[in-house]
Amino acid sequence: MPRPDATEFHPYYGRYIEKVPDGPIVDVLTSGMEETLSLLRSIPEARADHRYADGKWSIKEVVGHVIDAERVFSYRALRFGRKDTTPLASFEQDDYIPAGNFGARTLRDLTDEYEAVRRATIELFRHFDESQLSLRGTAADNPVSVRALGYITAGHEIHHRAILRERYLGQGASASRA
Questions:
Q1: Which of 43, 87, 89, 143 is the most buried (most CB within 10 A)?
Q2: Higher local confidence (pLDDT), 124 or 175
Q3: Does a structural domain hold residue 157?
Q4: How many CB atoms are located within 10 Å of the residue 6 CB?
């Protein structure tokens, strides 16, 4: 699958797409899942409610956000990949966090849900052919291709994994530019 070109997504999403390494998107999604699962499983439950600053999301809320965003991106890809061109609304991530009640759950539970959602995303993209990947629709008043949605999903996870490592867990400077 070729990388999406700039006509396939809103410029805002370029910050995620540029983080995605070269290679088949299904392989990138799979390796990303493995890295994220390893990271999440290394975090003690006692740290799961940690916030690196006042007003920032907790670790559990970051994981919940990644899950929610992946579901939204995959739903958009499914709709557009099935030639449904009905424009789709945006979603307000800051409204989803309190409604998700992630603090009432365990990090292990959220990790299991993340894995289930990512496996579903991988299967969805595994079975898109090139013509489906090229299809476009409108989400949040902007055109986007199915291919770009795969890259956005992968890059969004990479972005948040880097933030978790640096800002929440103090594991290096890789996320300071994230």
A1: 43
A2: 124
A3: yes
A4: 10
Cα four-point dihedral sign 36, 39, 41, 44 = negative
pTM of the full predicted structure?
A: 0.94
DSSP letters for 64-75: HHHHHHHHHHHH
Q: Kindly state the tokens that stand for 165.
A: 């490592």
Q: What is the mean pLDDT of residues 81-106?
A: 97
pLDDT, tens digit, for every residue of 49-66?
Answer: 999 999 999 999 999 999
Which two three-digit tokens encode residue 140?
């949040």
How many C-beta atoms surround the C-beta of residue 116 within 10 A? 11
Half-sphere CA count of 154, side-chain side, radius 13 A: 27
Can you give the residue range of the structural domain that contains 54? 6-168
Side chain identity at residue 78, one-letter code: L
The answer to whether position 1 is within a domain reads no
User: 111 with 37: CB under 8 angstroms?
Assistant: yes
pLDDT in tens, 158-175: 999 999 999 999 987 543
